[in-house]
Amino acid sequence: MPTTTVYVITVKFPDEYRSIAMKKQNSFNLRSFTSFSLVISTIVMSWSGFILYFAPPGRIANWTGWKIMLFTKAEWQAFHTIFSFMFFILFIIHLFFVNWKAFLTYFRSRIRKGLNRKRELFAAVGISLLFFTGTLASWAPFGTVMDFGETLKEGWDKKYESPAIAHMEEFTLLRLATVFAGVSSDDLLITLRDSGIVVRGQNARLKHIAADNGVTPARLYEILTRRYPGDEESHKYEVPSGIGKMTINMVASRLGKDPSVLTGILRDMGVSANGESTLRTVAVQLGISPHDLYSLLTGDRN
User: Fold this and answer.
1) 49 and 125 belong to one structural domain
2) Considering the entire predicted model, what is its pTM?
3) In whole angstroms, what is the distance from residue 270 CA to residue 273 CA?
4) Left (φ > 0), alpha (ψ -120 to 50) or beta: where does 287 sit?
5) What would the pLDDT profile of 37-65 be if each residue is shown by its tens digit?
6) Both 149 and 173 in a single domain?
7) Is 21 domain-assigned?
8) Is residue 173 part of a domain?
């Protein structure tokens, strides 16, 4: 039988080439860095966006110290914003610094030869415009998705308590004293300190006091209301929380006015509304915020 001879050729690279290859392998790779970072930022953006989709409104989240997966709503909002900026910066680096040669070559060749994928380009632009316009005009299913998110957010009202006044967590003790009948800010400070709460001074905001003591603004307000009665008359002109969902009838009841008086004010402003109209709906017609509309309806204290 014939025999087959196999020759094995061994190539030995000089040490200098081996050293260059090792250095290249161990050097920092900008392309890999940007790719990994883009994936991470995309995951964080997507997940934080999903969390914020069903998170409670800020008036509830800030008042009750709402958290999910160890983070508050404000922290999830910060994650979403910062990682969006991170994604944009990495995109610029990836396009113009890492792959700039390939990008310029492709761009020049497409200019010379014309776009070969016109249908795909037009389809991509068309679907993007459809999503943009549909979201802006609240067409189905875009509007349905957003309405469902609002329904989820409103469901938190049944589970958590809202503050009596919008953004009350921002109140200092000086301003908070006006909510209670015949109580000074010194009284509030002493009451909190007697309950074991550390307070820096009368100008400290409720949210900062809560953060320093590991409690929620709602808990601090509960401590104070147990000792001092609320002065409804003094703060009924303050914008209440959840103002957008309040109806004209609810606002009239809070202000001690007849609903027809408020609808008359709106009629003079060119808006037709009834007692069951919400302030959010009316505010949209006027092109103002529900907070500003409430101030207008309070009359001489707007």
Assistant:
1) yes
2) 0.71
3) 10
4) left
5) 999 999 999 999 999 999 998 888 988 99
6) no
7) no
8) yes
Token readout for 291 is 């907070």
Q: In this predicted model, what pLDDT tens digit does every residue of 112-158 receive, in sequence order?
A: 666 667 788 789 899 999 999 999 888 889 889 988 888 888 788 77
pLDDT tens figures, 164-186: 787 889 999 998 888 887 889 99
Identify whether residues 37 and 149 lie together within a single domain: yes
**Single-letter code of the amino acid located at 260:** S
Q: Which long-range contacts (CB under 8 A, 24 or more apart) does 171-174 make?
A: 171/205, 171/206, 172/202, 172/203, 172/204, 172/205, 172/206, 173/199, 173/201, 173/202, 173/203, 173/204, 173/206, 174/202, 174/203
Q: Which residue do the tokens 């070559």 mark?
A: 105
Measure the CA–CA gap between 95 and 103, rounded to whole angstroms. Answer: 7
Same domain as 97, residue 41: yes
Full residue range of the structural domain in which residue 269 is found: 243-297
Residue 22: inside a domain, yes or no?
A: no
User: Considering the domain boundaries, does residue 120 fall inside one?
Assistant: yes
